[in-house]
């Protein structure tokens, strides 16, 4: 068989010249006649290539199969010895045809491989071009993104809103007829307006700094004058002591007994003096006023403030002279500003080292200790309290940590009452209400007592102090009486309580069980509608109670949530009643009587001030139980 190298260039050119669209299979006899006329081998090769391309692989394979069958038939006849004898001419022609078509199939495959190779090279070339174009597109996209993300200095400036710009800017700066249609000119105009505003603010700052320096020098002069008056005041006090002894007056000597009194901040000094005066005028021996804290830290704080005041006075000229000098870089100013901000945030909620304490003795030797501290950075006074009672039963079941909640209407002590302090908290993004448990509560009545409230008080400090003392005692006594009454009810002594209060019992209803439950137990046992009512309250209840009443038709369980200002505030209740022999549970969601009772306790019910509040509440619930239990005809 000839090797593939016989397909020369001439043969390929001849193939290209003679190649035509295949319309029909060329007659084999005609092609054989053309081969007889060929003398040049290259022409012969071209004719073979033409025959191979026009016949096709399938036709040639079929003809090889036919020739092979002829050879098989001849061999089988020869082996079996059949007649006629071996036909050599036919066998030779079949062998030649097998060889010829095998060569043609080989040449056809070689041409297809070459054609496929050319196509592959073309595809690879185009694929490489596509890869190059893709990388170029990616590179251009990165360049575009980098250009779009390039930070400009003017982008870091916080400009005023567009409406405010057109409202405040002068017409020669805003140029609305141009800037409203041209975004670039609009940005330039806003930057010019920002520059003018900052120049104006800088001038205002310089003016205020000058006024501050004048006021600081005036304050220093007055302080020196007050210090010079102190020896004279001491001599007047000494001379007045003999007069007090002669008149039989009790000298206000608590400041002498408390060495830390002179270190108290002015706001707490006012409270201390008013509390001592109230104690002596009313002759209330159950009130104790004292001063506590770290006197060493207070002295160091006082020295630091004096040094800072002197340094501020000395540095005023340097600061004013440095306005037109060399400016710090933006990074240095940013680092200094952030450091000062963090330092300010750290000491914002730091109280004064010296505090004032007022201890009030209430019913059954229950002691309410109120600790008042002053926060200099916020300009407010905060209150912490602690209640101790060793002789009160069931004392721990009530939340005494909420005793001061709503002591006066609208005073929850969760917000900073000082406008400047509130602005500082907002700037530093400090959530004051979440920190009130640790630093104390800035109630409005505390600000009145210490004189640190913004608006003027409608009453004198002595009247306000008396009002607070009375309210604290009433709140503590109410809770103590409630704790005692609950213990009596748990022991089954409800009727003696009713007789003592002059309240008629409810026939057909008996109180069988009284429990103090947790917040989680209350929420788990009440319906969803009652939970929604509970969420509307800002402050949490101070106690959750569970009452169980027995009626002729079954047991009624009532859950109650009481707030700190009980009985002034409403009562949130939930009822459940399951009749004997029936599986259906009645509640405020499916029973009109329970729903009306819940609404009445929450919105309308008021207790008689002359009677025990918790006892009146139990009787009111028993009346509801009697109506639902079918004993309304026996009620008074």
Automatic annotation (TrEMBL):
<feature type="region of interest" description="Disordered">
    <location>
        <begin position="1"/>
        <end position="24"/>
    </location>
</feature>
<dbReference type="InterPro" id="IPR019163">
    <property type="entry name" value="THO_Thoc5"/>
</dbReference>
<comment type="similarity">
    <text>Belongs to the THOC5 family.</text>
</comment>
<feature type="compositionally biased region" description="Basic and acidic residues">
    <location>
        <begin position="297"/>
        <end position="307"/>
    </location>
</feature>
<dbReference type="GO" id="GO:0000445">
    <property type="term" value="C:THO complex part of transcription export complex"/>
</dbReference>
<protein>
    <submittedName>
        <fullName>Uncharacterized protein</fullName>
    </submittedName>
</protein>
<dbReference type="GO" id="GO:0003729">
    <property type="term" value="F:mRNA binding"/>
</dbReference>
<feature type="region of interest" description="Disordered">
    <location>
        <begin position="292"/>
        <end position="337"/>
    </location>
</feature>
<dbReference type="Pfam" id="PF09766">
    <property type="entry name" value="FmiP_Thoc5"/>
</dbReference>
<feature type="compositionally biased region" description="Basic and acidic residues">
    <location>
        <begin position="12"/>
        <end position="24"/>
    </location>
</feature>
<dbReference type="GO" id="GO:0006406">
    <property type="term" value="P:mRNA export from nucleus"/>
</dbReference>
<feature type="compositionally biased region" description="Acidic residues">
    <location>
        <begin position="308"/>
        <end position="330"/>
    </location>
</feature>
<keyword id="KW-0539">Nucleus</keyword>
């Amino acid at each position: 068989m000839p090797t593939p190298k016989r397909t020369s260039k001439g043969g390929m050119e001849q193939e290209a010249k003679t190649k035509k669209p295949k319309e029909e299979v060329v007659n084999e006899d005609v092609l054989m006649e053309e081969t007889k006329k060929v003398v040049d081998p290259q022409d012969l090769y071209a004719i073979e290539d033409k025959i191979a391309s026009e016949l096709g692989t399938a036709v040639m394979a079929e003809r090889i199969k036919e020739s092979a069958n002829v050879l098989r038939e001849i061999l089988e006849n020869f082996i079996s010895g059949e007649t006629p004898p071996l036909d050599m001419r036919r066998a030779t022609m079949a062998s030649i045809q097998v060889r010829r078509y095998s060569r043609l199939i080989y040449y056809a495959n070689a041409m297809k491989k070459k054609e496929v190779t050319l196509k592959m090279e073309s595809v690879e070339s185009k694929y490489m071009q596509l890869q190059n174009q893709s990388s170029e597109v990616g590179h251009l996209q990165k360049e575009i993104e980098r250009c779009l993300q390039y930070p400009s200095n003017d982008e870091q400036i916080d400009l005023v809103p567009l409406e405010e710009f057109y409202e405040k800017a002068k017409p020669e700066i805003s140029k609305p007829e141009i800037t409203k249609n041209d975004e670039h000119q609009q940005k330039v105009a806003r930057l010019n307006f920002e520059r003018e505003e900052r120049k104006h603010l800088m001038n205002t700052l310089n003016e205020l700094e000058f006024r501050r320096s004048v006021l600081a020098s005036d304050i220093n002069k007055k302080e020196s004058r007050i210090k010079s008056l102190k020896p004279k005041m001491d001599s007047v006090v000494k001379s007045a002591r003999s007069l007090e002894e002669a008149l039989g007056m009790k000298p206000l000597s608590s400041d002498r007994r408390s060495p830390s009194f002179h270190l108290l901040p002015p706001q707490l000094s006012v409270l201390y003096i008013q509390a001592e005066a109230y104690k002596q005028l009313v002759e209330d021996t159950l009130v104790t006023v004292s001063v506590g804290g770290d006197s060493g830290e207070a002295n160091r704080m006082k020295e630091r403030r004096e040094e800072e005041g002197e340094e501020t006075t000395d540095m005023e000229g340097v600061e004013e002279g440095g306005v037109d000098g060399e400016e710090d870089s933006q990074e240095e100013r940013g680092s200094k500003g952030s450091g000062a901000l963090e330092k300010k945030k750290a000491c914002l909620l730091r109280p004064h080292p010296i505090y004032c304490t007022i201890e009030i003795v209430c019913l059954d030797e229950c002691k309410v200790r109120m600790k008042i501290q002053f926060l200099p950075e916020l300009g407010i006074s905060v209150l912490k309290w602690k209640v101790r009672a060793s002789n009160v039963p069931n004392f721990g079941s009530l939340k005494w940590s909420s005793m001061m909640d709503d002591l006066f209407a609208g005073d929850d002590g969760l917000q900073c009452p000082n406008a400047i302090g509130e602005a500082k908290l907002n700037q530093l993004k400090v959530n004051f209400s979440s920190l009130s448990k640790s630093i104390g509560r800035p109630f409005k009545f505390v600000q009145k007592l210490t004189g640190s409230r913004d608006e003027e008080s409608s009453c004198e400090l002595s009247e306000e102090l008396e009002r607070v003392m009375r309210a604290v005692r009433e709140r503590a006594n109410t809770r103590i009486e409630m704790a005692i009454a609950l213990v009596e009810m748990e022991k089954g002594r409800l009727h003696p309580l009713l007789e003592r209060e002059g309240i008629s019992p409810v026939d057909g209803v008996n109180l069988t069980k009284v429990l103090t439950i947790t917040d989680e137990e209350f929420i788990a046992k009440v319906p969803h509608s009652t939970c929604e009512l509970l969420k509307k309250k800002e402050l949490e209840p101070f106690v959750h109670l569970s009452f169980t009443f027995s009626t002729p038709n079954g047991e009624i369980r009532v859950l109650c949530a009481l707030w700190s200002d009980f009985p002034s505030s409403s009562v949130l209740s939930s009822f459940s009643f399951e009749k004997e022999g029936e599986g259906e549970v009645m509640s405020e969601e499916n029973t009109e009587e329970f729903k009306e009772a819940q609404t009445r306790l929450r919105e309308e019910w008021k207790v008689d001030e002359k009677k025990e509040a918790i006892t009146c509440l139990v009787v009111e619930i028993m009346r509801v139980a009697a109506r639902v239990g079918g004993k309304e005809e026996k009620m008074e």
